[in-house]
Amino acid sequence: MLSLRKRPEIQPMPAGMTEQPIIHAQQVVKTYQTGSSQMTALKGVDFAVARGEMVAVMGPSGSGKTTLLNVLSGLDEVSAGTIWLEGQDLAKMKDRKRTDYRARRMGFIFQVYNLLPVLSAVENVELPLLVSGIKPSLARAKAMVALETVGLATWAKHRPAELSGGQRQRVTIARSLVNDPAIVWADEPTGALDSKTAAEIMSLMRELNETKGLTLVIVTHDPVVGAQADRIVYVRDGQIDTARTAADDALAAD
Amino acid sequence: MHEIFGLPMSTIMVVLLAVLTLFLFAVALIAWRRPVLFKLGVRNIPRRRAQSTLIVVGLMLSTLIISAALGVGDTLEYSATSDVYRQLGHVDELVVKSRTVDAGVQSALTETIDADTLGLVESAVAGDDSVDGVMPLLDVRVPVINETAGQVEPSVILTGIDPARLDAFGGLKAANGGTVDLGAVGDGQVVISEKAAEALDAKVGDALTIYHANTPVTLTVADIAANSTLAGQRETAISMVMPLDRLQALTEQEGTLTAVAISNAGGVRDSAAADDAVVAKLAPVLEGKQLGVAKVKETAVDNSQQLASVFSSLFLVLGLFSVAAGVLLIVLIFTMLAAERRSEMGMARAVGTHRRQLIQQFIAEGSGYAILSGFVGAGLGVLATFGIAAGMQALLGEFLPIEPHVTPRSLVVAYSLGMVITFLAVVGSSWKVSRLNVVAAVRDIPDVQSPARKKSGLVWGVLFLLGGALLALQGLAGDQAFPFYAGMSLVPFGIARILRFFGVPGRPVYSVVGMAVLILWMLPQNVAEKLFGTLDGDMEMFFLSGIFMVIGATIVIVQNTGLLLAGVSRFGSLFRSQLPAVRTAVAYPGASTGRTGMTIAMFSLIIFSLVMIATMNHNYVNLFLGDEANAGWDVRADAQSANPIADFEGTLAQKGVATDGFTAVGTVTSPSLFASEARLADTDAWKQTVVHGMDAAFIDNAELAFQQRAEGYATDEDIVRALASQPNVAVIDASALPGGSGIGMGDDALKLDGLTSADETFAPVTVELAAPDGGTATVTVIGIIDSKIGSLTGLYAAQSTLDAVYPKMASTSWYVALADPAQADTVAKEIESALMHNGVQGASIRDELKDAQQQEAGFLYLIEGFMGLGLFVGVAAVGVIAFRSVVERRQQIGVLRALGYQRGMVSLSFLIETAFVVGMGVLSGTTLGLVLSRNLFMADDAASTGFTVPWMIIGTILVATIAVALLMTWMPSRQAARIAPAEALRYE
């Protein structure tokens, strides 16, 4: 069940932040070339997240939420602007270094789980550790701990096709946590789940945020999910919607 | 080509066209009745051009291979029959010395007959419209020297014919296309054939010296004739021709002929049909006169067609491996296409599409690929035919000029057969993929097995068990290997299906089935014979063994992929930085066992066939070129009786040849082929062999070894002692064993029936020799010469034994052992040069064996090349799989990149996956090929040298296969690695 929490703030920057933000984006532009025409998905976005913060990025379909997550996490290149992650300029990292950085410092949760169907749950979870060069036996032990954390230790040998949607998303969460990341990116993590399971998943994420001090950036269009965050950032037409108010949010939630 | 596998090509064409028409009609019906489905299917073809190209390449292979195999048959038939018609011209039959009226072609023209025969023949055919010409012939073998050009030919056929009778035979054709007027050729002149002109570097006006009875005669070249029977050409011999009376006078053989040639009414190509009528006319007058009619043209044309059919069948049977791999590729492609469209198909079924309609959609798409690939395959088959013909020309051109030729009928058969095979595979695959569970397909989760399917499994199990058992029993009853082994291989599958119905786990059951099939086929021949008795099998067993062994091995591999992959994964963990790439690489083949199994089977099949051919080739070449091959002799000098040599060594010394390097000289003489006829005691028909008389020096100095000895002869030395001291004992080479190649054509060869190759000892065999005076003599065969001695062929007895049978020997061979065998070639040339006036031909025995083996090996390399075409199937398969995998796993690649997989790691993962699957196929094919070839080779009595593996050739085949397969994967894997993670994650 969702715990009773204060309503999240609605603003692009963390309020009263004193230390350097873990994520800091300035004037980020992302343009896609589609045939002969161009489509600008992000139009000069400024954005920052403090360490240990849980931020929800909300907005209507096609507003640029996922694009923002992709460029912030380094999965996609920016067309203009600068992104600093833990003080490092993402644009200055070569693909190899950026990939390596993702493996060691980030975790990802996707709407459609994106588990490898040919690997068992534990093999899926230990994959980021193996990529980081951790000894296989240690990786297996850590993966089991991560599965235990999400309550799936007994399902470790099962393949994704043998798990329910909620179980699959828990495996994804375990995978995103297993390498003790600084930032976890979640793209519609409850989009494919029923409301009960979605609530369980969000509760788990909140708990991990609070107990492990994880920084979580969650892209969602679900106000219930947004309500779980410390802060909500609204995106509309590729820009941060600063005009959006808490009242709008409450209305949307209703 | 007229026939293949004993079936007329025209009948095959009609049947195939009918079946193909039926298929095309079905496709047309789909297009007409279900245009939307048809369009849905066909529009997939141009969607992904690279993939469609690979599919067409894969599918065309069956048609290409069939087209090339039939093209080889056409080429050989065309080349051989053209050569026959060119050479024989209007000559249809030869009346020659023979014990029966129906004379064999093999021994024709090797004995002389009385000149009165001409009158006999003329009177018999007088007034007969079916004969339009009769020609007396006399052949003499002489050495010829062209002093002007400094060229020598030790053995040239000088033939004499009657110029007055030439018109009935279309005249004597000149090399320049005109006609030679033989009647105008003056005294002391001769007409030489084109071949002789080339070999002697002679032109009109040159003086040539011939030797007969050790007397030189100078003849001037009057003209150059085209190579033909009338110009003296006999098979590959070099020849000259002159008027008959002049040759008879020159050689003091007045009243003597070698043959009387007959020209049937009609043209060159249609006259042989009258053969039987002519023989019937002649039979009464020839009966009892030791004369017979050899149907030379009909026999030669039949032999050409038979040769073409044999080669075409051989290529087709060997090509079956590639065709089978091609069929697997079709199934694989359609399984992958279905996997890609699974949820789409599930949705279609959910909204009311019938299973039949899904099949129709796939058939529409498949027929598009098939029609395209059929045309490409048939066209490329013609190109392959030209390539093979070029290879054959290099190998056989000296004996038979090879002219590439493909008949439209063969092309139609190849196209139709290729299309029918492709269609059947497409229909079968479409039916299989249409059997999907709608919910599982829509949700993209693994399929579930319905109880109905389980029941069908039981039905199939019972059918396999009963059908297999019946087949096996039928095989045992008829001593036929094919039904027996096919049945025995099916039985375990039947048992497995039944056990599965009762819930026994699949992995152990199918692992045991795979092993059982492997053990059955890998049994050494002596063990198999003890268990099942001696069963008859031919070339088709090679294909059957390959198919079942590969199925068995693939099942064992696929059922135990987990274990194998764990091993690979453990090995991969040694390289920790690349472990994730290994982990994902091995996970995919393990997850889709069907796809993995089919790919492994494809490579296994092709590599199996290549390794088998390469290994057998290598071992037989080694065997026949071993140290024992020349029986201790280094040089052989052959001479015909026209210019006899009384004292070989003395004559050589006289001519200045140093003989101090000779450690031994043995002499072997032979009667003519006609006189060499023999038969087993108490049988009627005379058979062909070559009889040799050995002098004491040959028996003492030859290093004779015997693979089988008659009872009473415990050692090889016992046999040699008997040959030297006892009259009427003989030994014979191993080709006379039943199943051996024998000497002569097919049933005409002398065979020691009743003796099996497995017998170490045997009861002495009595053989009757046909004495030229019509009587018979008897010899007892007491040993079978070891096949390792490739230089001795035929029946060998002491000279004294043969002198009592044959008053006149046709040829003499001197065998020389040298202190320094490396000088064999030099000494052979010295002997030939010194004794050229006697027509002596010298040869290094080892070089001669090497040349023969090189020719055989060259031919086998040609076959290996042809079979290697199947590798294209495998490579195309790897390409299709890799391209499809990149598309299928696009989103997963995005996840991997998000999780930290470097680009190189993504590429490496694909490459390791291919290396694993191809590697398993290659390993399985190599192992099976080596085991089977070892079993077959060691079962051969000749294989006493031990089995060796041609690692160099096999290594090259394997490295090239894996390298090309990796190259085909490298392109899509690079493409995969370059996918932007965010873009891949968006892909659905």
| Assembly state | heterodimer
Average predicted confidence as pLDDT of chain A: 84
Q: Give the SSE string of chain A.
A: EEEEHEEHEHHHEHEHEEH
Could you list the spans of chain A in which at least 5 consecutive residues all have pLDDT below 50?
none
Largest sheet of chain A: 7 strands, mixed
- Major sheet size, sense and barrel closure of chain B: 12 strands, mixed
The chain-level mean pLDDT of chain B equals 85
Low-confidence stretches of chain B: none
Distance between the termini of chain A: 18 Å
- Tally the helices of chain A: 8
Task: Write a short abstract of this structure.
The complex is a heterodimer of chains A (254) and B (988). By secondary structure, chain A is of the alpha/beta class.
Tell me about this structure.
The complex is a heterodimer of chains A (254) and B (988). By secondary structure, chain A is α/β, with parallel strands linked by helices. Chain A has helices spanning 65-72, 95-105, 121-131, 136-149, 165-177, 195-212, 223-227, 246-253, and strands spanning 9-10, 23-34, 37-49, 54-58, 80-85, 88-89, 106-110, 183-187, 215-219, 231-236, 239-240. Chain A is 35% helix and 25% strand. In chain A, the strands form 2 sheets. In chain A, strands 1, 4, 7, 8, 9, 10 and 11 form a 7-stranded mixed beta sheet that branches. In chain A, a hairpin with a 2-residue loop joins strand 2 (23-34) and strand 3 (37-49). In chain A, helix 3 packs across helix 4, helix 3 packs parallel to helix 5 and helix 5 (165-177) runs parallel beside helix 6. Chain B has 988 residues and is an alpha+beta fold. In chain B, strand 7 (172-173) and strand 8 (179-180) form a beta hairpin. The radius of gyration of chain B is 34 Å and the shape is elongated. Chain B starts with a strand and ends with a helix.
